[in-house]
Fold this sequence. Notes:
The protein contains 13 helices and 13 strands. The chain has helices spanning 20-34, 70-82, 98-101, 123-128, 139-142, 186-196, 211-218, 235-243, 260-267, 280-283, 296-305, 311-321, 324-340, and strands at residues 2-6, 38-43, 52-55, 89-92, 109-112, 134-136, 151-154, 173-179, 200-205, 227-229, 245-250, 272-275, 290-293. The strands form two sheets. It has a seven-stranded parallel sheet, with helices on both faces. Strands 10-9-8-11-12-13 form a six-stranded parallel sheet, with helices on both faces. Helix 5 (139-142) links the parallel strand 6 (134-136) and strand 7 (151-154). The longest helix is centred in the C-terminal third of the chain and has 17 residues, at 324-340.
Amino acid sequence: MRIAQVAPLAEAVPPQLYGGTERVASWLTEELVRQGHQVTLFASGDSQTSAELVACAPRGLRLAGIRDHTASHLAMLAKVREREASFDIIHFHLDLLQHAMFADLAHKCVTTLHGRLDLPDFLPVYQAFPRMPLISISDGQRKPMPATANWLATVYHGLAPGLCPFNARGGDYLAFLGRITPEKRPDRAIEIAKRAGMPLKIAAKVDPVDEDYFRQRIKPLLDDPLIEFLGEIDEAQKAAFLGGARALLFPIDWPEPFGLVMIEAMSAGTPVIAWRNGSVPEIIEEGVSGLIVDSIADAVAACERSRAMNRFRVRSYFERHFTAARMAGDYIAAFDCLLASPRDFGKAAE
């Protein structure tokens, strides 16, 4: 199959540091190439891929200091449009702009929505272009969308088994990995660790929009011998960080669409202690790959329970459900469905 993968330009594919969507786009692209498909990746020029790379910006826009990415994305979409006849499927990992530019090609276009859908900001676009096929990354992600949304499939993320290698021993600390932002609730993670009397290592980036929150709400909580703030870490550091943990804390306070860090921890054999929000009940099998909690007290008790969890079972659960090979296979099935039923997705009858 001839597939165009259209990635955001905020980060390289894969990203040098933080960047969930770009990491997924990379894992999927590489696996599709490995499975024999002809893949073209539209991304920043500092991306690394075995597919054909069409450079649409010299480097990832965030590290280049460019804040408004709209113009760069429009220019990239113009390049995709110029070559559309050479693709069987055009797969977008962007939220919005392609819907207006590719509405007449809905029969061969699909968009994976990677973000939250419970805010009203983006809904007018999905209402205006109801025939554009969409893929969700969890069933829970779909709930706020209008009934007119044209869902093609739900495809859970997957990663290569070697990215976060299995660590049979783990360690004695709790881990928090991601961004310092109110909905991720690093304050909850700190309180859980203190109540449990366990060390907590926090590896997280602080976006400019969250600097006040970090300075006012989180930084004062870091002055404790149990708490260690590491800042933003890269992929190599992440594998050791997750593999060396006793458990990953995922105390979210929002409808998480997926939560990549959960499957990264599972890949390392590290169980996840997560709040019952968003995708969590779909991703975690209670007592096998993690523990789902509803309160600080539950989470503190889960820290102790996690000591007895079998890390081999956690890794086995990951291998059954969240590999890149499984993800790519699910996407190909969705693409086949789209190509087999073009009239259901915006192509006029011939």
